[in-house]
Amino acid sequence: MAVLAALLATVLFVALPDRLLWQRVLEDAGHAPVFAGVALAVYSLLPNRGLEDIPARCWRAFGLAVAFGVGTELGQKFLPNHDASVLDAVHDAAGAAFALALLAGWHGRRDSPVPFDRARSAWLLVVVLASCLIAAWEPLQCARAYGQRHAAFPVIAPVGAVADAAFIGARHATIEHAVLPGRWAGSGVERAALKLTFDTGSRPALEIREPPPDWRGHDALAVDVTNPGDQPVAMILRVLDAHHDWSSEDRLNLPVVIDARTRVTVRVSLDALAHAPAHRLMDLSSIANVMLFARAPVAGDALYVSSVRLE
Fold this sequence. Notes:
This protein is 42% helix and 24% strand. By secondary structure, the chain is of the alpha+beta class. Strands 1, 3, 4, 6, 9 and 11 form a six-stranded antiparallel sheet that branches. A five-stranded antiparallel sheet has the order 2-5-10-7-8. It is elongated, with a radius of gyration of 26 Å. Mean pLDDT is 83; it is low at 2-9.
């Protein structure tokens, strides 16, 4: 009982502050092994009615473990720095299914007075493999995102569908991969862009979270932006490092106006970037965030960002 309480407390009360993508994914994936332990602890607490009751006992343990998982997720809605997550509940169920399928297979091989039938073995193997896939899917996608990001450097965005979904977000706007419209489209990769479609009357933003942090050895940051609309769009290019104190004086805030029906490349030297904070040098080895945002509601309805890169 103490082990069960400790495992559930780990899920309920352990929360890390803002962290990198791989740390968030690792924390989420940790639900599976924790609930593997929960399922085994629950199984050990259920009455033992002999070998013939093992399958039913496993099902009861699985049902209780899933109920505990759903309950902990609902409980986290009322705790600070926690959120309820359907994906976490799925990971909980996958961990419980994995552990109990292995347990049932072990009991069947060791204790059954009759040969373990192939159909049952096959089903247990399917459960084990499916549980592993569910638990590993998010870490595998995370690894793929980091791989795409690394392969594309010194291009920071867009770099690939998986990485862009992981590291790029929009505020007061929707973001999608698109082809540059009309006469602004070049050939090949020059045609591809991130389309930022504004919410009406909003202050839209395109944010690159967790860019490759080390920008040393490069000369400039270049942002290629197209405004196909009939009105100029005024934005701010913001860059900050991991030591940022969240004051506006402690980062780069560069006003940018993209004229109507214009494709333009905005360049900032990394020397100017390093000297942008008012009271210190920006650490070019630990850049943490890049954002293109509007301080006020903007005219027009969309911008296309075809490249954010180091030169």
